[in-house]
UniProtKB/TrEMBL annotation:
<keyword id="KW-0408">Iron</keyword>
<keyword id="KW-0479">Metal-binding</keyword>
<dbReference type="GO" id="GO:0006284">
    <property type="term" value="P:base-excision repair"/>
</dbReference>
<keyword id="KW-0378">Hydrolase</keyword>
<keyword id="KW-0411">Iron-sulfur</keyword>
<dbReference type="Pfam" id="PF00730">
    <property type="entry name" value="HhH-GPD"/>
</dbReference>
<dbReference type="GO" id="GO:0016787">
    <property type="term" value="F:hydrolase activity"/>
</dbReference>
<dbReference type="InterPro" id="IPR003651">
    <property type="entry name" value="Endonuclease3_FeS-loop_motif"/>
</dbReference>
<dbReference type="InterPro" id="IPR003265">
    <property type="entry name" value="HhH-GPD_domain"/>
</dbReference>
<dbReference type="InterPro" id="IPR023170">
    <property type="entry name" value="HhH_base_excis_C"/>
</dbReference>
<dbReference type="InterPro" id="IPR011257">
    <property type="entry name" value="DNA_glycosylase"/>
</dbReference>
<keyword id="KW-0004">4Fe-4S</keyword>
<protein>
    <submittedName>
        <fullName>Endonuclease-3</fullName>
        <ecNumber>4.2.99.18</ecNumber>
    </submittedName>
</protein>
<dbReference type="GO" id="GO:0046872">
    <property type="term" value="F:metal ion binding"/>
</dbReference>
<keyword id="KW-0255">Endonuclease</keyword>
<keyword id="KW-0456">Lyase</keyword>
<keyword id="KW-0540">Nuclease</keyword>
Amino acid sequence: MMLAAPLFTDTRLEEIHRRLLAYYGRPPERDLWDPLKQFIYSMLSSRTKTEISLEVIGHLEERFGSWENLRDASIPEIEDAIRVVTFPEPKAINLKTALEEITRRCGSLSLEFLKGYRTDKIRSWLERFDGVGVKTSAAVVNFSTLRRRAMCVDSHHLRVTQRLGFVGRSADARETERRLMEMAPVKWAPEMLDEHHSLIKIHGQQICAKNHPRCGACPLLDLCPAGAGEERASG
Ligand code: SF4
């Protein structure tokens, strides 16, 4: 039996992308890291500012010289090295445990073997580790040299998507990513999904802020139910 074609194509994500690109310009090109470095970075970066996370990953490389040395360091030493990120203690424990587990399962400390896996299998393989959720697995597959299709939903992306009404206010990152990937054009390559993530993140940082969104200055105002409400309240 032939499936009926959809009555309309949802082009809202494309329109949002176009407007944010015109408003903010093209985000800086990403320096692609290997999957292990991206995994370590993403484990440490949750609820931490990007500048601090970048500083910490550079500091870890300098201080330990290799990821094997980081893995073999004591938890207090790792905790000390990452003390400027949020929740350094559980992150140090989770990171050391994950690095040891990767070595035990794979025979060496590398995630290069993931290149031979399907994207969904990579993600479920990564999400088995404590401290690794859907956001980290999406970052590893999309931002690293793996370069697969995924949408990394961080706190900015979650908030903006909720305000735009694409998901409910209680939606989590997994549900939000699923919805956004339904809306994203199939022609969007991994690089485009990465660019979209970066644009929404910039928007969340600069205009659609957590406490005081500046809806009057927002290029998405006419598409946004939350923004329309804000405007009515202040008008
Ligand atoms: S209109 Fe307001 S709430 Fe909506 S996306 Fe823009 S800043 Fe955010």
